[in-house]
Design goal:
heterodimer, A: 474 residues, alpha/beta, 2 domains, six-stranded parallel sheet, 13 strands, 51% helix, elongated, B: 240 residues, Rossmann fold, four-stranded mixed sheet, 4Fe4S_Fe_S_CS (chain A), Lactate utilization protein B (chain A)
Chain lengths: 474, 240
Amino acid sequence: MTMKIGTGQFKERVDQGINDSFMRGAVAGAQERIGTRRNDVISELNWEEWRSHGEEIRQHVLEHLDYYLEQLSENVAKRGGHVFFAQTGEEANEYIQQVVAKKDAKKVVKSKSMVTEEISLNTALEQAGCEVIETDLGEYILQVDDHDPPSHIVVPALHKNKEKIRDVFSEKLGYQLTSKPEELAGHARKKLREEFMAADIGITGCNFAVAETGSFSLVTNEGNADLVTSLPKTQITVMGMERLVPTFEEMEVLVSLLTRSAVGQKLTSYITVLTGPREELDVDGPEEFHLVIVDNGRSNILGGDFQSVLQCIRCAACVNACPVYRHVGGHSYGSIYSGPIGAVLSPLLGGYDEYKELPYASSLCAACTDACPVKIPLHELLLKHRQIIVEKEGKAPISEKLAMKAFGLGAASPLLYKMGSKIAPMAMNPFTDGDKISKGPGPLKAWTEIREFPAPNKERFRDWFKNREKGGKQ
Amino acid sequence: MMQGTIQNRDAFLNQIASRLGRERLSAPLPRPAWQYQPQDEVLKDATVNELVEVLKTHCLKIHTSFVMTDLQNLPETLEKTIADYGNESIVTWKDQRFSDWGLDPLLKDTLPRQNIDVYEWDYTRGAENIRQAEKANIGITISEITLAESGTVVLFSDKDRGRTVSFLPKTFICLIPKSTIVPRMTQAARIMREKHLQGNNISSCVNFITGPSNSADIELELVVGVHGPVKAAYILIDDL
């Protein structure tokens, strides 16, 4: 899996999403339910102050990122952990492949991690001869279903209904029970328990690393990350380089912001703070610990207009608030990072060639910005992207370019403008039905496929005005 | 503890500093004076008994049973709780407090005589501990810090306090001394930081556990009990 998901063009993906009524129902339901729980749980707090505190912590860390990463790496090494700084995804994967080879590992269990998907770690592990098992229930379902891509940052299998999951489990895992979620989950529990006990290496992401102690925290409800980090003899943790805080005290604040914003819980069932490998006489926990710190394009975002996007704590509150995501679903974004955060981040990490449409997949309503627990001005960043796409990249959508060009040409000369506005009603006549156009030609087609367009007025304002001065009809 | 290795650091950090338009930072950075501190306001003036009420109420939301007892009645309460969860095999930490609280007769005599296996963590037996925890029905641990706001118990691992005692068994029972209750995670983070600043190593694993394992990954329907325990019970001991 890479950051990119699916192969179709943006418009085809959106069409698929809009016509998938189960997915749209599921997404709308999820937005309502998570949204309500979030609102309940933030209403108990002075939420705006919490957001401001979250923002100041994240901004401070980004401004001093080299300092805190150095401190983190020193403290991890002091506790016996190995730290590898990877400028690219390939470097990270190569390092991890080396660890796998040294340990002669055959089976890897993973807990959910966006950054490992971003760098296609699973493919690299499989190339190194490992079986890789995702242990987050949602990710496990997707993996069993021939690596179906995730559609939501927090609830990756949101687009799948339980009947479909039952069918996949029956076909691939010999499952024989009903489509009840608890029976499906029970089966996954049994299967995965065997995998945990047999795994050679556990791989996790990182919610927040703590520079002062060389610790890092993992946030889950299932407890899968705890088994990933308790049972295998070797543990590898992969973190995006910006995911850290100065001390436990800031970690606590960001964890509180994360769990409330992501799932509307005061804290999730399991928040685990790990420091180094296990201690000398400990029985469980890894004997060997590796921390891989990944740049993969993030440093290019620092110091520029988009630096604030690195404040992100991956809670998906913006996704859950977005009216565009609600209709088109996660797969439309063509990236593991969907919704407003995906529309800002994917073009930065994956380039405008691949993701130039995403900044336009927004109504700029700013619901995302309001929802963000660390105050990333998401809608402003989307606008900034559009500005760059048009001004610097020359990659404005072709219909917009044509329309602007035509208008520029027509408006530049009084004669052309006069002629154009005069013939418009006649030119549009074949498409006009009363005072509306419902089957427009050319650039109007995409618009009129889903709604009507007002027909040009038969009488131009100038003509009406002239007529009125002559005492004609009012 | 052997010192670990660090690879590729300088080029990586130089790139960051250069993007930020400055030299690498080398002088120690004081901890910033934050402009906002909203976390201190939560349950600020609550008494211990009020915090207990908050904890108790929140247990309903996190699918966790809650019972209050005192040191005198603890053995009886624990025995009953164990019976409620099926009276099968048990794994516990090795912790002096179990004896101090008068639980030896129950754990070392009464239960074994009823053919209920009680396995006490013993690091000298290595991986056997994990096998025992995996097949146990109930795991018993003790909360070091307890967060009223979220109904969370905090466990610190060490050689006698295995991580898996709280994850592998089907039922998670946690004994909570009333003296460990604090308003929220803020205070726990400060206690951990203090410990570190005083020169003590923080445990390799600190678990903040809030009820049983659960997931809403299938159609957003809550399933309680996925990888870790299916059931959770807190026993609050009035030790004040």
